[in-house]
Design a protein that fits this description.
The chain has about 120 residues and is mainly beta. Helix content is about 5%, strand content about 50%. A hairpin with a 4-residue loop joins strand 5 (about 60-70) and strand 6 (about 75-80). The radius of gyration is 13 Å and the shape is globular.
Length: about 120
């Protein structure tokens, strides 16, 4: 399922720039469904064409910046001054994000920890 994002910046922006809701997360070999995710965690990501995005959690919104890394073929997310998240797979029906530290190794399938989103 792992893929590289190979689209133009315009096409990526059209694909990415909407609100995505969390479906589930997977970590430590455990799948956590949306309804089981703690209230202080991410519920939605809203991407804008000006290369900004918002993380929407329970009662709070955190702003960040996104950029397409043409070399790595992924979308890097900067949040609170740190570039520690990346989107490694996106299409019309799903967006899959992981922590950058979990993506340093090369993988041919999903990384050990990731979060799955679908369009809202």
């Amino acid at each position: 399922m792992a893929q590289k994002i190979s689209v133009s910046n315009d096409s990526l922006s059209k694909l990415l720039c909407k609100t995505w809701k969390i479906d589930y997360s997977f970590g430590d070999r455990i799948k956590t469904e949306q309804k089981q995710i703690p209230k202080n965690q991410i519920y939605e990501l809203a991407f804008n064409s000006d290369y900004t995005f918002q993380v929407i959690g329970a009662g709070k919104i955190v702003n960040g910046k996104w950029c397409y890394n043409e070399i790595n073929k992924d979308v890097e997310l900067e949040l609170r001054g740190e570039n520690n998240l990346r989107i490694f797979s996106i299409n019309n029906v799903e967006l899959i994000m992981t922590f950058k530290k979990d993506s340093k190794k090369k993988f041919s399938s999903l990384p050990e920890n990731f979060t799955h989103f679908s369009p809202k």
